[in-house]
Amino acid sequence: MKIIAGLGNPTREYEGTRHNIGFSVIDKLAEQYNISMTEKKHKAICGKGIIEGEKVVLLKPQTYMNLSGESIGEAVNYYKVDPEEDLIVIYDDIDLDVGRLRIREKGSAGGHNGMKNIIAHLGTEVFPRIRVGVGAKPKGWDLADYVLGRFPKEELEDIEAAGLDACQAVALIISQDVKAAMNQMNVKKK
Fold first, then answer.
1. Tens-of-pLDDT digits for all 190 residues of the chain?
2. Any catalytic annotation for residue 19?
3. Alpha carbon distance 57, 74 (integer Å)
4. What value does the CA radius of gyration of the chain take, rounded to a whole number of Å?
5. Rounded Cα gap, residues 84 and 170, in angstroms
6. Which residue, 111, 85, 96, 73, is CA-closest to 21?
7. Long-range CB contacts (< 8 A, 24+ apart) of 41-44?
8. SS3 104
9. Contact 87, 2 (CB under 8 A)
10. CA distance 158 to 179
11. What whole-number distance in Å separates Cα of residue 84 and Cα of residue 143?
């Protein structure tokens, strides 16, 4: 069994914001694989289904971004999965251009508070993650205002494509492994 967690903030006011790209990818996965996201468990909205022949739990933590580890840690413990092998976390990254993906097997939080909290709750930095580029904060902008803002029209096509690419990356991680997904998906878009 795999747990696939997309990070974001609950409530309508945050829908479609840069910080909620993880939720958007989970919604796309649920749609592609016909997984109903109606269960409320582990401080999250979740759904169970099959992706590439593997049982999965899709997870959208409802703890707000900075406390994502509470939800993910609870799910990892409940299902008794090994985060190094059976967890995939999807989240926004301001250090990547809009629409670019970066898949890693492990790593630090890189200043991302949601990831800091997950690492603290799991006690490890070793678990696969898919970072989706949302672009750098413009000079003079407050970081919170930027990540809680919505994408301008000219970026919507790239971010939509990135969501589909992230779904493909999840399928590759499940059907092959993280390295295969990294080799295919970490290439620079032209």
1. 999 999 999 999 999 999 999 999 999 999 999 999 999 999 999 999 999 999 999 999 999 999 999 999 999 999 999 999 999 999 999 999 999 999 999 999 998 999 999 999 999 999 999 999 999 999 999 999 999 999 999 999 999 999 999 999 999 999 999 999 999 998 755 4
2. yes
3. 13
4. 15
5. 15
6. 96
7. 41/75, 42/71, 42/72, 42/74, 42/75, 42/78, 43/70, 43/71, 43/74, 44/5, 44/71, 44/75
8. strand
9. yes
10. 24
11. 30
| Active-site choice (19, 42, 112, 121) | 19
Q: What is the pLDDT of residue 69?
A: 97
Domains and CATH numbers, the chain: 2-185 (3.40.50.1470)
Q: How far apart are CA 169 and CA 174, in angstroms?
A: 9
Q: Strand, helix or coil at 9?
A: coil
Provide the token pair at 123: 């006690």
Q: What is the pLDDT of residue 188?
A: 57
* Whole-structure pTM value: 0.96
Angle subtended by helix axes 21-32 and 153-175, to nearest 10: 60
- Strands 2-6 and 54-61, by their bridges, are parallel
Look up residue 101 and give its two tokens.
Answer: 């993906």
Q: What is the pLDDT of residue 190?
A: 47
User: What are the CA-CA distances from residue 108 to residues 29, 50, 69, 88, 117 (Å)?
Assistant: 26, 30, 14, 15, 11
